[in-house]
Write a structure and sequence with these properties.
mainly beta, OB fold (Dihydrolipoamide Acetyltransferase, E2P), five-stranded antiparallel β-sheet, 3 helices
């Protein structure tokens, strides 16, 4: 099936005056206009093309790759504002439409806005929305503590900077963890620092977790994650119990849990040790 708003691998099936006709495995066809024809090609060659609706609402394929595709987020410039909405530069001949109802704040010509691209069910057109939070969901998380994640800087808050995590979740980087200049739309790497109640994600821009602690602490964190955030050991556990469970000495164990406690990564209770987010 030809996917609107995505890159498609399609086969050249015939050539006509308007251009090349491409088809998928189900014989669905789309036109690649002459301006996008490659210099050298043969019938049945495969081409990687982007598919969307042109200015006349016809399905069309192009070899250009847009700045944003369906389901993605990107910082785009507003080229024009009309009585129906804003039109954004996304690197294509036909500009990307953002209706007024999808604008978090009224867009202005020349301004740059972080938007999400989606397919409108009624018109079958690709549309932009700057109300990005409604396309994010933290109900079921696909990340875990200390995991490296992809970030897009979303918008500032009183306590830090909101970020989009792996194009799926909402996260927050606190002011104390920001050591570089951040601008809306910046793309960078980060780490899940903590998961708070309600599946709220605290994000760090610097390395933490396994990559930033000594080996015994790393081993304890791995054990906690493998056991749903709990291990039945304390500083009063016998050296034999610690050795059997973690393959380390009691001295090394006490030093490691002290280090993790100072970093607020673990919590001590009478029955054992817990990851902080599981309190």
């Amino acid at each position: 099936m030809i996917q609107i708003g995505e890159m498609n691998s399609l086969s050249i099936i015939r050539e006509r005056d308007p251009g090349l006709f491409l088809a998928d495995d189900d014989d669905n066809e789309v036109l690649l206009p002459n301006r996008y024809k490659p210099e050298n090609y043969k019938i049945y060659d495969f081409l990687e093309v982007f598919v969307y609706l042109d200015n006349e609402e016809r399905l069309v394929a192009v070899t250009d790759k847009p700045y944003i595709m369906k389901g993605e987020f990107a910082l785009l410039r507003c080229n024009e504002v009309t009585s129906v909405g804003a039109f954004l530069d996304w690197g294509m001949v036909k500009e990307l439409f953002c209706p007024f109802k999808e604008q978090a704040f009224k867009m202005k010509k020349g301004g740059w806005y972080l938007v999400h691209c989606y397919l409108d069910d009624e018109t079958n057109r690709l549309v932009a929305s700057s109300k990005t939070n409604r396309f994010l969901n933290n109900n079921i998380l696909s990340v875990k503590p200390f995991q490296e994640v992809d970030l897009i800087v979303s918008h500032p808050s009183d306590i830090g900077m909101n970020v989009i995590v792996n194009k799926r979740h909402m996260g927050l980087v606190y002011h104390d963890d920001i050591f570089i200049d951040l601008s809306i739309g910046d793309i960078l790497k980060g780490y899940v620092k903590k998961i708070r109640p309600g599946n709220k994600l605290d994000i760090s821009l610097g390395q933490l977790g396994y990559r930033n602690i000594e080996p015994n602490s790393k081993r304890i964190l791995e054990k906690l994650e493998d056991n749903n955030g709990f291990i039945p050991l304390t500083d009063k556990s016998s050296p034999e119990a610690i050795k059997n469970d973690l393959q380390m000495s009691k001295k090394g164990f006490k030093k490691a849990i002290g280090n993790l406690y100072k970093q607020r990564l673990i919590l001590f209770k009478e029955d054992g040790i817990y990851l902080v987010q599981n309190r």
